[in-house]
Write a structure and sequence with these properties.
By secondary structure, the chain is an alpha/beta fold. Among the domains are: 58 residues, DNA polymerase, domain 1; 97 residues, Nucleic acid-binding proteins (OB fold (Dihydrolipoamide Acetyltransferase, E2P)); 154 residues, Rossmann fold; 157 residues, Rossmann fold. It is 39% helix and 18% strand. The chain has 23 helices and 21 strands. The strands form 4 sheets. The protein has a 7-stranded parallel beta sheet with strand order 11-12-10-13-14-9-15, sandwiched between helices. A 6-stranded parallel beta sheet has the order 16-21-20-17-19-18, sandwiched between helices. It has a 5-stranded mixed beta barrel with strand order 2-4-5-7-6. Helix 19 links the parallel strand 20 and strand 21. It is globular and about 90 Å long. The two termini are 30 Å apart. It binds adenosine-5'-diphosphate and magnesium ion. Adenosine-5'-diphosphate (ADP) binds next to helix 11.
Length: 679
């Protein structure tokens, strides 16, 4: 079996399961090998039954207090028994396994492993595994992989396929040059892959992960280095002599710019007048007011007779920007045109026509902007908002819509400067490091679910005062469909609990763009009081009248993502509140949430997050999708990022040819990488 083979060569994968693997994006043996576990199930030691808590998977040991009984319900045959140890007793139950009745004996000692639920107010271990002493000893302390799945494909099936692939596959030789591997003390690739799936200990996991993270950062840095070599400072043919009307716009704003905004605008203006093409990143925390800077810069392009365009990641955001642009620029006679994927064919046609003829001064759009048929008249400045949602390739395609236009990208991702220089290698950076003065700091609290009634009372009060509320529903790893159900159920029960006059609506990823827009627009127009949503509200939404955000199951989010979510409130002059509600109240959870509750500063939160997450961290936190890293985390793995960047630099500095046989593997990998991450 070779790495490039399709997955059907793996024992146990037939036509039917192949399709399911496809759904997970796994088509080849390599892809399966690099399908890393989402989290690990840690096989911990025996605990007293009196110490269990809800949701845990634990091992207990004891004997049955009486003969196990069988109960027949409409759907199941349930075997029930009570297990006692020195500390107390607990109910255990097995579903549809009536044959167990014969084997379970009173007076015998059993070791059981299973998840604890609360049933009718008491704890119950459901569907436990029955372990022999030998099995228990063998598994103790081991980590078992838990993969992201799709309906029909079990964790066991994926585990088995991975096991087979690791055993049967003839691995290609390690692509990472041996000198680099030695210098940084990295595992060979094959070893790292087998260990990331089946680590014997947390230390093993950390070592395996370090190698794979290094790989990812190394390829990224290398690709960026090669790209940068091609990209020298280019002279620009767009000149910006005039700023009189831009000054008028500045004077007409209902607020004055913050110092950070001012210095950013100064940076931009001096770039635009330098005679060279601008490539600049604006980094500013959520709510720091990046949009207005884009508006000013784009207006300046219009004032000087050119076209400008801004690309945003979502339909909703495009529309929101469109309104905001018009609010500021229509009085100046600027013609702004919207172009998004979901507009009707004739609307699109009309927009494209206006863009091509130059009647459109400014264009706001989604990915639709970089499609083939979109031709600009005289594009001098392009802006990408929420840049982390786009690949370098998409940014590049945007650039190609003009003749070396000036480029501005905006990001809210708080990254320390040293890392930003690596990650945004090709860009100059301006930082907006303060929020507008008229904001009151958001008041935060980290609470358990028992706080919910109080939270609802608070929400009711805020709505009565004319404010609006976001509720972020638990995130479900398994599927969007379940997530949707969850949001709808939640909204349904909320309607029953809250006073009838409160208008509750929901927003989720399964909705069509048109529906999403409608909901977002009605929320913005205050026709909705409480918006129950998945994380789709995360990106850039600006409804200043919303003053409360309640995040359910806050422990399931990374701190950086919680910070982004929180950024949806505190955007107006009224006091805003963010309630982080934890689904479990373990010490670890509460400590993490207290960090974010303590500070509204994205940099601080990111730093603290980093401190708390050691390299052996097995938290199953879904990444917020920043950059294009599958396993690497720019905060947690900051050291690897620096190392890999240094390694890549020394590699390109030596000016070795990738065509040399020794680096064949690396070249292949680099080409594939550049294609996949759309670099
Ligand atoms: P982000 O940086 O997260 O994209 P926005 O650009 O959406 O933030 O700005 C958030 C809100 O702050 C908007 O309502 C905007 O009008 C307002 N705003 C921007 N700059 C200032 C300022 N200097 N003073 C007061 N309000 C401002
Ligand atoms: Mg924004």
């Amino acid at each position: 079996m070779k790495e490039t083979d399709g997955i059907r060569v793996i024992k146990g994968i037939g036509e039917k399961s192949e399709k399911l693997f496809f759904k997970l994006g796994i088509t080849s043996v390599t892809e399966l090998l690099h399908y890393y576990p989402r989290i690990y199930d840690i096989f911990t030691g025996i605990v007293p039954v009196a110490s269990v808590s809800e949701g845990e998977t634990v091992v207990i040991e004891g004997s049955f207090t009486g003969k196990p009984a069988i109960i027949q319900t409409r759907q199941y045959k349930i075997i029930q028994a009570v297990l006692r140890d020195g500390s107390g007793s607990i109910r255990v139950a097995w579903f549809n396994m009536p044959f167990l009745l014969k084997t379970l004996k009173v007076g015998m000692h059993y070791i059981l492993r299973g998840k604890i639920y609360v049933k009718n107010g008491t704890f119950q271990m459901t569907q436990p595994q029955i372990l022999t002493k030998e099995e228990y000893v063998k598994w103790l302390g081991k980590l078992q992989p838990v993969y992201s799945l799709t309906a029909g494909l079990s964790n066991k099936a994926v585990t088995k396929a991975v096991t087979n692939a690791i055993h049967e596959c003839e691995f290609e030789s390690d692509f990472l040059p041996i000198e680099i591997r030695k210098q940084y003390g990295l595992l060979p690739l094959k070893k790292a892959i087998s260990m990331i799936h089946f680590p014997d200990s947390k230390e093993d996991y950390a070592e395996a992960r370090r190698r794979l993270v290094f790989d990812e950062f190394f390829l990224f840095s290398l690709a960026l280095n090669y790209m940068r070599e091609e990209k020298q400072e280019k002279p620009s043919e767009y000149f910006f002599p005039s700023t009189e009307r831009t000054e008028q716009l500045l004077a007409s704003l209902p607020f004055s710019l913050t110092e950070g905004q001012k210095s950013t605008w100064d940076d931009i203006l001096s770039d635009l007048r330098s005679g060279f093409v601008m490539n600049r990143l604006i980094q500013g925390d959520v709510g720091s007011g990046k949009t207005i800077i884009a508006i000013i810069a784009l207006f300046c392009a219009v004032e000087n007779g050119y076209q400008g365009a801004i690309m945003v990641p979502t339909e909703v955001l495009a529309r929101q920007h469109y309104e905001e642009f018009n609010r500021y620029l229509e009085p100046f006679g600027v013609k702004t045109v919207l172009l998004t994927g979901f507009m009707t064919a004739s609307e699109k046609k009309e927009a494209k026509q206006l863009i091509k003829s130059g009647e459109a001064d400014l264009v706001i759009g989604t990915h639709a902007l970089i499609q083939d048929g979109v031709l600009f008249h005289d594009l001098a400045l392009i802006v990408t908002d929420e840049q982390h949602r786009f690949g370098v390739k998409q940014r590049e395609a945007f650039t190609e819509k003009g003749k070396n236009p000036h480029v501005l990208v905006m990001s809210a991702t708080p990254i320390p400067r040293t890392l930003a220089i690596i990650l945004y290698g090709d860009l100059d950076i301006s930082v907006i490091d303060e929020l507008p003065k008229n904001r009151l700091p958001i008041k935060n609290c980290a609470v358990g679910t028992n706080y919910r009634p109080q939270a609802y009372r608070f929400i009711t009060k805020q709505v009565a005062e004319g404010h609006q509320v976001y509720i972020i529903c638990p995130m479900i790893e398994e599927s969007e469909a379940v997530e949707m159900e969850n949001v709808m159920d939640y909204a349904g029960s909320l309607r029953e609990i809250l006073p009838e006059s409160i208008r509750v609506e929901c927003l989720h990823g399964k909705m069509k763009p048109a529906e999403k827009n409608k909901v977002m627009e009605s929320f913005a127009a205050h026709e909705i009081d409480v918006l129950v949503s998945t994380t789709v509200v995360e990106v850039g939404i600006n409804v200043p009248n919303a003053t409360v955000m309640l995040i359910e199951n806050a422990e399931r989010f990374g701190l950086a993502q919680l910070h982004q979510l929180r950024g949806r409130v505190g955007r107006g002059t009224a006091q805003s509140y963010c309630i982080f509600m934890a689904g479990n109240s373990s010490r670890e959870t509460m400590e993490r949430l207290k960090v974010i509750a303590r500070s509204n500063d994205g940099f601080f939160v990111a730093q603290e997050d980093l401190k708390m997450r050691g390299p052996g961290d097995l938290f199953g936190i879904r990444q917020s999708g920043e950059f294009y890293f599958r396993i690497g985390d720019i905060y947690q793995d900051a050291k690897e990022l620096r190392d890999a960047n240094e390694a890549a630099k020394s590699f390109t500095d030596r000016d070795v040819s990738l065509l040399c046989k020794k680096y064949q593997g690396l070249r292949k990998k680099l080409e594939k990488y550049a294609g996949e991450v759309s670099l």
